[in-house]
Amino acid sequence: MFTRRTCIKLAAMSSVFLSLGAGSSLASALFTPKRKENPRRPDNRFIEGTHAEHGSGRALIGVSNGKSAYDMVKEAVFLIGGFDKLGLKGKTALVKPNVVSGERNPATTNPDVVSAAVKLLYENGASKVYVGDMSALFTLSTARNMKKNGIYRAAKDSGAEVVVFEDYDWVEVPLPRAKYVKSAYVTEWLYKADIVVNLPVIKTHRSASYSITLKNFIGCTHLKQRPYIVDESHWEELVSEFNLAYAPDLNIVDGTVSMVEGGPWSGTPKDTNLIMASGDRVGADIVGLGVIKSFGLWPMVSEIEVWEQKQIKRAIETGVGRGREGLKLVTGQGDKEFIELMRKVRSVTGL
User: Fold this and answer.
1) Is residue 241 a contact partner of residue 318, using CB atoms and an 8 Å limit?
2) Contact at 8 Å (CB) between 309 and 289?
3) Domains of the chain
4) Residue 195: which residues within 8 A CB-CB, separation 6 or more?
5) Taking the CB of residue 101, how many other CB atoms lie within 10 A of it?
6) Do the beta carbons of residue 300 and residue 209 sit within 8 Å?
7) Closest Cα to residue 110, out of 253, 251, 219?
8) What is the pLDDT of residues 190-209, one digit of tens each?
9) What are 304-314's pLDDT values in tens digits?
10) What are the helix (H) ranges across the chain?
């Protein structure tokens, strides 16, 4: 039986569908996915050691500190093997930031980090870069939000084409290893681009405890499948199970400013001045959880061991990401604040 909260959300969802207009692929709640596809799950290219091509080494998480978003993104990816690992020459790339709303960073991804990622993808051979997302149910439209929070201008000025997923078709992806959902309705853009770069921000979340790489994927799912619509009692597990539908080729995590309390709309910001890069979503989320936990302000994170977070546990159980022994944290040089923060992160994560 639906709770009163869910009924209210369903009613609001119906209003959103009606307001989008007949020209939108979301105009009807009774939509039909364009087609079925197998999960998009490329191998993790960012693995430690000489046998990385066989996936036998540990998955790397690189963390950089510096003055400019461009330099930090470049160094973080360098620490795990560099952009060459993606084989970008002549390929198209989709960059998926967090555009949950029109609020500024850290509720959404820092436009400077979006710009840096787009520029570096082009510099390393990409033929075309797209920046796309779909905002939360109560904050649509995505295009308006991107213009409000600065992501639209950052993307365009860097040469990217902006796409808003609600204007395009949806693909059904079966999830045989999932427990709480049988299939995912995902944006067709996951199959239109050759390379997918996940570009979340580090932040806390009142319903999902936190939001980093795993939670950022929910912006790729149809509004009918947002976790609170499917099963709000297993919100966090659903976040991880939906990630069975795809694996990004690279995660670049914005930690220039992190939200360490509240969220997802607004909360307490802290200048953490870092960028993370990894091919493993669990690895990136664990380090991000370590950053949030180090401030001790958000009980949903500070009072729970990072490896016991529901998103993390379910992601490891289903094979979305690796456990502690399969991960390696690599940090660049930085100032005293960065060194101390990374010390705390290593302490609480065991990496």
Assistant:
1) yes
2) yes
3) 37-349 (3.40.50.11440)
4) 86, 88, 91, 92, 93, 94, 121, 126, 249, 250
5) 21
6) yes
7) 253
8) 999 999 999 999 999 999 99
9) 999 999 999 99
10) 4-20, 69-79, 111-123, 142-149, 151-157, 189-192, 213-216, 227-231, 235-242, 281-295, 299-302, 310-318, 336-349
Please give the Cα distance from 25 to 83 (Å, whole number).
35
DSSP E strand boundaries for 32-145: 35-36, 59-65, 92-97, 128-133
224: Cα within 13 Å, side-chain hemisphere: 18
Q: Which residues of 167-195 are buried (b: 16+ CB within 10 A; e: fewer)?
A: bbebbbbebeebebbebbbbbbbbbebbb
Please state the φ and ψ torsions of residue 10, each to the nearest 5 degrees.
-65, -40
User: Tokens 């694996």 label which residue?
Assistant: 247
Q: How confident is the model at residue 34 (pLDDT cuts 50, 70, 90)?
A: confident
Give me the residue label for tokens 């029109």: 102
Flag whether pLDDT at 333 surpasses 80: yes
d(CA 339, CA 32): 51
In angstroms, the CA 114 to CA 302 distance is: 29
Phi and psi dihedrals of 184, rounded to 5?
-115, 140
What is the distance between the alpha carbons of residues 101 and 325, in angstroms, rounded to a whole number?
36
Selection from 53-67, 134-148, 235-249 with the highest mean pLDDT:
235-249
Q: From CA 323, how far away is CA 319, in angstroms rounded? A: 9
pTM of the entire predicted model: 0.92
Residue 307 DSSP SS3: helix
Write out the two tokens for 69: 């978003």
In this predicted structure, the answer to whether residue 26 has a pLDDT above a threshold of 70 is no
- Between the CA of residue 266 and those of 106, 236, 276, what are the distances in Å? 8, 20, 22
Cβ neighbours for 339, distance < 8 A, ≥ 6 positions apart: none
Sign of CA dihedral 84, 325, 66, 151: positive
Task: Decide if 175 contacts 165 (C-beta within 8 A).
Answer: no
Q: Can you say how many angstroms the Cα of residue 203 is from the centroid of all Cα atoms in its chain?
A: 11
Nearest to 311 by CA among 211, 229, 233: 211
